[in-house]
Design goal:
binds 2-acetamido-2-deoxy-beta-D-glucopyranose, seven-stranded mixed β-sheet, DUF604, eight-stranded mixed β-sheet, alpha/beta, Spore Coat Polysaccharide Biosynthesis Protein SpsA, Chain A, membrane, single chain
């Protein structure tokens, strides 16, 4: 029927109806312009009310400043963590998580595959509260649902706690997070927009096998509130759509891609698909705040004289004072002796017996090996330098030992020699051995360094007996680090 009824007899009625409809239409358009943020759904309603309120404020200001919405600054209370682990592994992994979790301050949950057994009960107050993951075996009609349980954890974490949520941070039960840096980095993004922030693998083949555009779950990934909500809503369909995929992170990435969002990689998130001694990597960390750390179980301890747990706690001593500088590489030269100093704040210090430019020292020394067998280079997502015994190439290596506040309200970190270098002095640059240095002291400002447009600079202020003293400062306008 419809418009075919519009013959001569009822023509005038039709015209009246048409005009009436057009008037209604314009009234509707006018009204909906006035209320542009009418919620589309009442699903997750508490969260939705918040986000529609902030949206209506941010529309005009977002034109002026595209990345920051007119909102209070993001802090830890706006983040919810979803950690997915197994009951079996938690017995030994809980110490890793407890090294960074702040009880009653950090929000979030640990999702276990089953109820915790005797050794874990009563549940530690220093651990995240736990939940047992939803049983997906009936829904998916199969018994091995490991990958899907991890993905479904996103929805479960969102479901359990999304009031005032700005970012959902997902991780494994062996992910070590640096909370202050995570908050500072996330505060730079507009949480009312759609963001999928994650870390690529350091190992090229891992990215190739899974995806270059996925966030690796062990490194942790962050979903802004609107994306977390959209993904939670689509979760069951997404699990069905990608039932053929076995990898959790790849499935997550695929579901997010279908929402229309792609990965923004962050250089401070570390899957650590590396093996052995990663001191070379951490001594030339990219100029980006360190956000996480993973595969702690399979690495050699970060500090040669400590075990893994002690190493995590030791690194946290520096992290608790200043995460903005943690493992940031600062380089300066001692011209009297032709030495280069490279400090990875809170972790290590190197002395080289010749002048090397920053462009060179930025490349990690390849102290580590690949995650799995790799037939030929390139192996890593960054350039490396080989290990060398050449006295003009090999550093004297020192590791973080202690941290304290000075009477002038600066921060003093000290680094002590790991072992004798065992080679003669570098002859070509004047034969100035650094063998006698056993300790390096570094003074840094007590204020955080959030803007990372340029690295910090330093001066070697004294080389005295067995000790070298270095002061951090901002680089001068025309300073060249070479
Ligand atoms: C943010 O919004 C408040 C009102 O909610 C307004 O008073 C303030 O001027 C706005 N600030 C900016 C930078 O737009
Ligand atoms: C975090 O921000 C909220 C406002 O969104 C504020 O009420 C709260 O006090 C802040 N918390 C901290 C620890 O700064
Ligand atoms: C956390 O809060 C609970 C209840 O509010 C309290 O019993 C517990 O002692 C708190 N834990 C810490 C470590 O502050
Ligand atoms: C530093 O090394 C250069 C060669 O690279 C050499 O010419 C110069 O004399 C050395 N300076 C000192 C103080 O040893
Ligand atoms: C370098 O110094 C060592 C002792 O410090 C000395 O034995 C050696 O002869 C020197 N070599 C050169 C080439 O000057």
């Amino acid at each position: 029927m419809g418009s075919s009824n519009c013959n001569l007899d009822v023509g005038s009625i039709c015209r009246t109806l048409l005009i009436f409809c057009m008037v209604l239409y314009f009234v509707f358009i006018a009204l909906s312009n006035q209320y542009p943020n009418c919620p589309a759904s009442e699903f997750f309603s508490p969260f939705w009310k918040i986000s529609s309120a902030t949206n209506s404020i941010s529309i005009s200001s977002s034109v002026l400043s595209p990345t920051i919405s007119n909102d209070s600054k993001t802090n830890l209370s706006h983040l919810v963590f979803g950690l997915v682990g197994s009951e079996k592994a938690w017995h030994h992994r809980k110490a890793y998580i407890e090294s960074w979790w702040r009880p009653n301050i950090t929000r979030g949950f640990l999702f276990l595959d089953k109820e915790p057994t005797a050794g874990l009960i009563p549940w530690s107050g220093a651990s995240p509260p736990y939940k047992v993951s939803d049983d997906l075996t009936k829904f998916l009609k199969k018994t091995d649902v490991t990958a899907q349980r991890i993905i479904h954890g996103i929805m479960e974490a969102f479901r359990e706690d999304h009031e005032n949520l700005r970012w959902l941070v997902m991780g494994d039960d062996d992910s070590i997070f640096f909370l202050d840096n995570i908050v500072d980095v996330l505060a730079k993004f507009d949480h009312t927009k759609y963001y999928y922030l994650g870390g690529q693998s350091e190992f090229i083949l891992s990215n190739h096998w899974f995806s270059f555009s996925q966030g690796f779950g062990g490194a942790g990934f962050m979903l802004s509130a609107p994306l977390a909500r959209a993904l939670a809503k689509d979760m069951e369909n997404c699990l069905k759509r990608y039932a053929h995929l076995k990898a959790a992170d790849l499935t997550t990435k695929s579901c997010i891609a279908d929402i229309g969002v792609s990965l923004s990689p962050l250089k401070g998130l570390h899957q650590i698909d590396l093996r052995g001694d990663i001191s070379g990597f951490l001594s030339s960390h990219p100029k980006s705040p360190i956000l996480s750390f993973h595969h702690y179980d399979v690495l050699e301890p970060l500090f040669p004289s400590k075990d893994r747990f002690e190493s995590a706690r030791h690194l946290m001593k520096a992290a608790n004072v200043d995460q903005s500088r943690l493992v940031q590489q600062t380089i300066c030269h001692h011209r009297d002796k032709n030495w280069s100093f490279s400090i990875s704040w809170g972790y290590s210090a190197h002395i080289y017996e010749r002048i090397m430019p920053r462009s060179y020292l930025q490349k990690p020394i390849e102290t580590f090996t690949t995650w799995t067998h790799s037939p030929h280079p390139p192996n890593y997502m960054f350039n490396t330098r080989g290990r060398s015994n050449d006295p003009c190439e090999a550093p004297h290596i020192f590791f973080f030992e202690s941290i304290e506040k000075t009477s002038r309200n600066e921060v003093l970190t000290s680094y002590s020699r790991a072992s004798p270098r065992g080679s003669p002095a570098c002859a070509s640059s004047g034969n100035h051995s650094a063998d006698f240095i056993s300790k390096i002291e570094v003074i840094s400002p007590s204020t955080k360094r959030i803007e990372m447009d340029r690295c910090e600079c330093c001066d070697v202020v004294r080389v005295d007996g067995m000790k070298a003293e270095v002061n951090f400062r901002e680089c001068m306008m025309d300073e060249i680090i070479a």
